[in-house]
């Protein structure tokens, strides 16, 4: 059974070489690594003088322009370039924690499980609140999620992250693949469709990558605006499955974590970050009522809106 890894790139740094080396040393071999690079000049600058294609002979590189890039469409293109039975979606800033990532990630892909996603561990520079967010969203216990969990898990049933996730091609093709055009959240949109068709999502906690960001309040606002837009554009997936409650639960748990660990001075920052997230999400869900200038101010993806015209 062949397994390919598909990674969108934008202005990659030298960490890309470390990622490729770690993928090359996996206990279950990777057949091909497909790189979908946005901005050819940045990639050429990175690999200049490195004999990149000589060293990494299982690598395929495809270039797209910034205007052409789309969270769903570009990944669809990557899947079409692959013929593997299982493909793994990753991001350039996800780093395998060990040589068993691919083995542990693909192990749950049987029976009704159509996709599995990895546990995300905080990087060394991760701020305390973000560390707890990793723990909240990616606990140490694996689980399988299906439509039966909607009543208890709500939106969390659809939670899946293309930071590192493995897909069964046969089911992907059956369901039509990632949405062709989306601002964000293509992984959860697909997972939502999949769950509603009777398939399941696996969270593979033993499959681990290092991945975290210390986003500012402004970055949280823009990111959550686009998240809200993605949900508003796909009522067939998200309608009747509210996510606000999960956000409130995260704030309460984060507050408790800061109190227990003695990081009391970080509490004001937590509230500012939480308010930024909610404001962005609230506006994004209602983007159709907003003027174009305000939308462009709120989004982190202005190119997406240019395509809408």
What is the helix fraction of residues, given as a range?
A: 40-55%
How much strand?
Answer: 15-25%
- How widely separated are the two ends? 43 Å
The coarse overall form would be globular
Query: Total number of helical segments?
Result: 15
Poorly predicted residue ranges: none
Mean pLDDT, all residues: 92
By DSSP, the count of extended strands is 9
- Using the CA coordinates, give the radius of gyration: 19 Å
Structural class: alpha/beta
General description of the model:
The protein has 309 residues and is α/β, with parallel strands linked by helices. 45% of the residues lie in helices and 18% in strands. It has helices at 15-24, 40-47, 52-55, 73-80, 101-106, 128-137, 150-153, 169-175, 186-196, 217-232, 235-238, 244-261, 267-285, 292-298, 302-308, and strands at residues 3-10, 32-38, 59-64, 86-90, 95-96, 113-121, 143-145, 164-168, 200-210. Strand 1 (3-10), helix 1 (15-24) and strand 2 form a beta-alpha-beta unit. Helix 6 crosses helix 12 (244-261), helix 10 runs parallel beside helix 13 (267-285) and helix 12 packs antiparallel against helix 13 (267-285). The longest helix has 19 residues, at 267-285. The model has no long low-confidence stretch (mean pLDDT 92).
């Amino acid at each position: 059974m062949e397994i390919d890894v598909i990674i969108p790139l934008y202005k990659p740094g030298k960490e890309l070489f470390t990622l490729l080396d770690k993928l090359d040393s996996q206990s279950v071999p990777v057949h091909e690594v497909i790189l979908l690079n946005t901005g050819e000049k940045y990639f050429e600058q990175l690999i200049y003088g490195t004999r990149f294609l000589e060293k990494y002979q299982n690598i395929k590189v495809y270039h797209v322009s910034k205007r052409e890039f789309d969270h769903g469409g570009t990944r669809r293109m990557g899947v079409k370039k692959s013929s593997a039975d299982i493909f793994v979606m990753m991001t350039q800033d996800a780093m395998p924690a060990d040589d068993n990532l691919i083995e542990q990630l693909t192990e749950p892909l049987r029976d009704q499980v159509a996709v599995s996603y990895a546990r995300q561990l905080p990087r060394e520079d991760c701020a305390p609140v973000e560390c707890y967010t990793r723990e909240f969203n990616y606990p140490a216990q694996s689980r399988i999620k299906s439509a039966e969990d909607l009543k208890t898990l709500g939106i969390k049933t659809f939670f899946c992250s293309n930071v590192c996730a493995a897909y069964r091609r046969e089911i992907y093709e059956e369901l039509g693949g990632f949405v062709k055009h989306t601002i964000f959240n293509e992984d959860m949109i697909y997972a939502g469709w999949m769950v509603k068709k009777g398939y399941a999502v696996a969270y593979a906690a033993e499959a681990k990558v290092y991945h975290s960001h210390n986003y500012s309040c402004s970055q949280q606002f823009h990111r959550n605006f686009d998240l809200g837009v993605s949900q508003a554009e796909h009522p067939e997936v998200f309608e009747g499955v509210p996510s606000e409650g999960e956000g409130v639960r995260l704030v309460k748990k984060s507050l408790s974590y800061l109190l227990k660990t003695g990081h009391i001075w970080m509490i004001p920052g937590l509230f500012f970050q939480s308010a930024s997230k909610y404001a962005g999400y609230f506006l994004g869900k209602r983007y159709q009522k907003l003027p174009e200038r305000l939308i462009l101010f709120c989004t982190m993806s202005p190119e997406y809106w240019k395509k809408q015209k």
